[in-house]
Write a structure and sequence with these properties.
Number of helices: 19
Largest sheet: 7 strands, mixed
Strand content: 5-15%
Distance between the termini: 72 Å
Number of domains: 3
Strand order of the largest sheet: 3-2-4-1-5-6-7
Radius of gyration: 24 Å
CATH superfamily of the largest domain: Mur-like, catalytic domain
CATH architecture of the largest domain: 3-Layer(aba) Sandwich
Number of strands: 13
CATH topology of the largest domain: UDP-N-acetylmuramoyl-L-alanine:D-glutamate ligase
Length: about 525
């Protein structure tokens, strides 16, 4: 195994060798924490109750667990998580379905128009130009508006970064907040110590609104969170609360083997659900049988087409990109996928950061007998650059037994999958991990398939009106005509308007063009 000095030297070379232009691009990322802009972009009326989920690790998993619980119990809800792996619109689900594309685009225009009107007044009052909304502020405001338009009762919202000054904290009404496991991440924005980061994340708490806290957090983190809760009058509950045992059905441990971090995520979601709905029961075995994991977490992809039939067995995918996530992934792989001293083939890509411990992340996952490919993703505007593949390989050389175990070809994820499939064969374990930006690129690679996708909502009343007006000005495109037809069909099949179900009054007909 490499010495700590060897790893430190490799890490120093990684940071020093990142081209100056890449560092400059990172500094130009449009991340502006604060609520001044977002509050001018969202509606004053919030017709849904917020379930706000913060922390460092497990946020997305807790949101997904809650969504499955709400669906299992028949509770109307929307979910907003980030970053979306299939496009901005797909960061939102409504009762388990993506919103219609046209609806999303229309509400985005409404948000932008509202903000531009407010920005003019801001400039007049202060003499300052507020600039444009950041991409995350825009996505957040659109999600809140979609929740309003579609009349959901609850909005399950994942914090983007931090807490107090995160755009999602602009929601007006919260029913409960959740803070998952907190670790060191995004120090350049949130603070250099675990206590500073915990203080920022505690900012999602509200007076008199219950807060669920993962009790496995460090003593320092728990002290910061509980002191803040008491100071503002927030009732808080730790996940080792004995009340959990009163309503959690026994889990079939032979069928569902949960890691410790998965148990904590489940407890966070379960305790929050119970506080919101004390009279509802929850069958955990039924819940877990539906594999309630978000895309990019404990997922399986199929690459038969990408590899021309070379690999028919699925490949494991998990977007672990910080130390807490990597430690949890390492435990899972060692317990569930490793077979003695046989090698695991890793494909990894990370985003550039001044504080991310690249060498420690690789060392935690990779054993001397393993194979390793370090790849790069292509960042979109306002996203961090990828760590150069050559520098990731240099770190790995101090971990594995031989340089022949390291991939040195084209740094794209599809090329690395081809190499990994050749080396591991059809049955050898292959794991793809790292930045969620890499996972997004993976999911959008031709020949890669995942079953963990949601359906899209049918066009509704707003789209029916939109296409009616549009068709009077020009000929509809093929896609628009298809959605217009779906909207008219949806109108006819609505039980409220169906002639078969309406007992009195006249049946309304959708417009014809």
């Amino acid at each position: 195994m490499p010495s700590a000095r060897d790893l430190k030297r490799a890490l120093d070379r990684v940071r020093s060798a990142i081209p100056a232009q890449r560092k400059l691009e990172g500094d130009r990322r449009n991340i502006r924490l604060g609520l001044e802009r977002i509050t001018r972009a969202i509606q004053k009326e919030q017709n849904w109750t917020g379930v706000h989920v913060g922390g460092t690790n497990g946020k997305g998993s807790i949101c997904t667990l809650l969504s499955y619980m709400f669906r299992q119990s028949g509770v109307s809800h929307g979910v907003f998580t980030s970053p979306s792996l299939f496009g901005a619109r797909n960061g939102i689900t409504i009762n388990g379905m993506y919103p219609n594309k046209r609806l999303y685009e229309a509400e985005m225009k409404n948000v932008q128009s509202r903000f531009h009107r407010a920005a003019s007044g801001w400039t007049f009052e202060t003499g300052e130009d507020p600039g444009e909304l950041t991409p995350f502020e825009l996505e957040t405001a659109v999600a809140f508006r979609v929740f309003n338009v579609l009349h959901v009762k609850y909005g399950i919202v994942e914090v983007g970064m931090g807490g107090a000054s995160d755009a999602t904290n602009a929601m007006h009404e919260k029913g409960i907040t959740i803070i998952s496991k907190i670790g060191l991440d995004h120090q350049e924005y949130l603070g250099n110590t675990i206590e500073e980061i915990a203080g920022v994340k505690a900012g999602i708490m509200r007076p008199s609104v219950p807060c669920i806290i993962d009790h496995t957090n460090s003593v320092e983190v728990l002290r910061v969170l509980t002191e803040h809760a008491r100071s503002i009058g927030t009732p808080y509950y730790l996940t080792d609360d004995p009340d959990v045992a009163d309503f959690s059905s026994p889990i079939d441990t032979e069928k569902f083997q949960l890691e410790d971090y998965e148990k904590q995520n489940l407890l966070c979601a379960l305790l929050a659900f119970k506080k919101l709905f004390p009279n509802m029961e929850m069958d955990l075995n039924e819940l877990l049988s539906k594999r309630p994991y978000p895309p990019g977490r404990k997922d399986l992809i199929h690459v038969r087409d990408l590899t021309d039939g070379l690999r028919t067995a699925p490949i494991f995918v998990d977007g672990a990109h910080n130390m807490l996530g990597v430690q949890a992934l390492s435990t899972y792989i060692n317990n569930q996928m490793r077979n003695g001293d046989e090698p695991v083939t890793w494909i990894m890509g990370l985003s550039a950061s001044k504080t991310k411990p690249f060498a420690s992340l690789i060392e935690t996952l990779v054993r001397p007998q393993d194979r390793f490919a370090f790849v790069e993703y292509q960042p979109l505007p306002n996203e961090p650059s990828a760590v150069p593949a050559a520098l990731g390989r240099e770190i790995a050389e101090s971990v594995v037994s031989s340089s022949e175990q390291i991939y040195d070809g084209d740094p794209s994820v599809d090329a690395a999958i081809q190499w990994a499939s050749e080396k591991a064969g059809n049955e050898g374990p292959i794991v793809i991990t790292g930045s969620l930006y890499l996972i997004r690129e993976l999911y959008n690679t031709e020949g890669v398939y995942t079953r963990r996708k949601f359906k899209t909502m049918r066009p509704g009343r707003s789209q029916l009106w939109y296409y009616t007006q549009l068709a009077q000005t020009r000929e509809l495109t093929e896609e628009e005509a298809r959605e217009f037809k779906q909207a008219r069909r949806h109108w006819r099949l609505n039980p409220i308007r169906s002639s078969a179900l309406v007992s009195d009054g006249e049946r309304q007909e959708p417009p014809r063009i």
